[in-house]
């Protein structure tokens, strides 16, 4: 199942190049009053929503290209990100002294994970707004893992049982000496699109091709088999430090080929079995 949010908050089911409106399924979500839960309610109740969608008939069908895509996760409690999690990217960072701060060029086992502000999250229907134009801003394609249930101290063997689904993530970043969480948390600097692909469609996330182009030129091409710390290991690692909740998103790391983006350019990114996103780059 490929679920998207679009056009102001409607829930859609992507079927090929079209979107079917399945928003009535949202009526199955429980109502809450303040204080609200810290997790995403739709993701928490995804099995119930999926079952309701299976029973729905009808629903407006429109071309996918005609809708404004929002992030498929509306209210993540946290965005967890893995730095330099491909060996080839670590190697290029080590070699490029002018771009990558020496303080940040270490193995992921030494660096650990970092958090991005949830306010930085957008879908492909909004442009990336480049800030601080006097500094270099880079693209980074990543497989995004969406957590489906609450867990802490999760074992590697059980980790995939906690996954609701997958999406394409763009971890946009300003280069510089500051901590990653600052340089990667600007508004629009986290992209999640086009959909949440439920975990049953991707039983093994360790063999997925990634591709990113800018104005048609290939910048990044890799496969998730080359992750230093794979998806189950990342989930286990993250959950050993903090509780993971439904809707939390793990950006699994970017491969080699990161490069600068500028206003007026167009980014296309795809991940095998997940889909493709297309997004504009503009000035802030």
Overall description:
There is one protein chain. The chain contains 6 helices and 20 strands. The chain is of the alpha+beta class and 284 residues long. The strands form 3 sheets. Strands 1, 2, 3, 4, 5, 6, 7, 8, 11, 12, 14 and 17 form a 12-stranded mixed sheet that branches. 45% of the residues are buried. The model has no long low-confidence stretch (mean pLDDT 94).
Number of helical regions: 6
| Coarse shape | globular
Structural class: alpha+beta
Largest sheet: 12 strands, mixed
Binned strand content: 25-35%
Name the average pLDDT: 94
Helical content stands at: 10-25%
Poorly predicted runs are: none
Identify the notable features of this structure and list them briefly.
284 residues, alpha+beta, twelve-stranded mixed β-sheet, five-stranded mixed β-sheet
Task: Please provide a brief summary of the model.
This protein has 284 residues and is an alpha+beta fold. The protein has helices spanning 41-44, 46-55, 87-95, 108-111, 180-183, 231-239, and strands at residues 2-6, 10-15, 18-21, 61-63, 69-70, 79-81, 114-116, 121-122, 128-130, 137-139, 141-147, 163-171, 173-174, 190-198, 209-214, 217-223, 249-251, 259-260, 266-271, 275-283.
């Amino acid at each position: 199942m490929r679920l998207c949010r679009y056009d102001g908050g409607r829930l859609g089911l992507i079927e090929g190049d079209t979107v079917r409106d399945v928003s009535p399924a949202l009526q199955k979500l429980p109502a809450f009053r303040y204080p609200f839960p810290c997790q995403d309610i739709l993701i928490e109740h995804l099995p119930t929503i999926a079952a309701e969608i299976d029973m729905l008939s009808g629903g407006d069908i429109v071309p996918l290209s005609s809708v404004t895509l929002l992030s498929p996760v509306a209210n993540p409690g946290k965005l967890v990100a893995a730095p330099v999690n491909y060996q080839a990217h670590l190697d290029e960072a080590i070699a490029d002294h002018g771009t990558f701060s020496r303080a940040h060029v270490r193995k992921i086992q030494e660096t650990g994970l970092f958090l991005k502000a949830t306010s930085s999250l957008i879908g492909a229907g909004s442009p990336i707004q480049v800030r601080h134009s006097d500094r270099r801003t880079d693209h980074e394609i990543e497989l995004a893992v969406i957590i489906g249930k609450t867990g802490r101290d999760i074992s590697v063997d059980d980790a995939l049982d906690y996954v609701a689904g997958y999406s394409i993530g763009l971890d946009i970043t300003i280069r510089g000496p500051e901590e990653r969480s600052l340089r990667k948390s600007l508004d629009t600097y986290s992209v999640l699109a086009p959909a949440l692909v439920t975990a049953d469609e991707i039983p093994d996330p360790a063999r997925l091709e990634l591709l990113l182009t800018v104005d048609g030129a290939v910048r990044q091409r890799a496969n998730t088999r080359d992750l230093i710390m794979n998806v189950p290991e990342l989930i286990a690692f993250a959950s050993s430090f903090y509780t993971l909740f439904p809707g939390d998103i793990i950006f699994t790391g970017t491969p080699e080929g990161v490069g600068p983006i500028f206003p007026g350019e167009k980014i296309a990114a795809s991940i095998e079995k997940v889909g493709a996103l297309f997004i504009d780059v503009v000035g802030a």
